[in-house]
């Protein structure tokens, strides 16, 4: 696999995982609280951002970076990707008959989530790849991560398209 595609896939997977955790948590909260679909969606989207940023921040903090610096990098790296994912995910869920009204124990809910998150991944991957190719987005994450030793000497090669093609780790 092309190293930049590997980084884009990894970035997209981090985001979609965080989005999935946040959305399911938001839907559980909304359902348990008897909130409307609109209120539940707002909570789910908010938590998708929180968990998406959180999952991307963990490796940076574990590598010794301060929380504030890690969050600054993650906000710059993941915001566009999460926005794209949330738009696509919610649109797909809205068009699947019964998915928005299904409970957490209904098969249509989980089938809808799988389809919508898959579509969100497909939509966000080219966004992440575009940002990486321009030294932005998740390339910022990998550049900072590499600077703290976790991804090694090749991190800067990924952050800048004209520096060669190192191997993703």
UniProtKB/TrEMBL annotation:
<feature type="transmembrane region" description="Helical">
    <location>
        <begin position="108"/>
        <end position="127"/>
    </location>
</feature>
<feature type="compositionally biased region" description="Basic and acidic residues">
    <location>
        <begin position="150"/>
        <end position="163"/>
    </location>
</feature>
<dbReference type="InterPro" id="IPR025509">
    <property type="entry name" value="DUF4396"/>
</dbReference>
<keyword id="KW-1133">Transmembrane helix</keyword>
<feature type="region of interest" description="Disordered">
    <location>
        <begin position="142"/>
        <end position="169"/>
    </location>
</feature>
<feature type="transmembrane region" description="Helical">
    <location>
        <begin position="38"/>
        <end position="58"/>
    </location>
</feature>
<dbReference type="Pfam" id="PF14342">
    <property type="entry name" value="DUF4396"/>
</dbReference>
<feature type="transmembrane region" description="Helical">
    <location>
        <begin position="70"/>
        <end position="88"/>
    </location>
</feature>
<feature type="domain" description="DUF4396">
    <location>
        <begin position="8"/>
        <end position="137"/>
    </location>
</feature>
<keyword id="KW-0472">Membrane</keyword>
<keyword id="KW-0812">Transmembrane</keyword>
<protein>
    <submittedName>
        <fullName>DUF4396 domain-containing protein</fullName>
    </submittedName>
</protein>
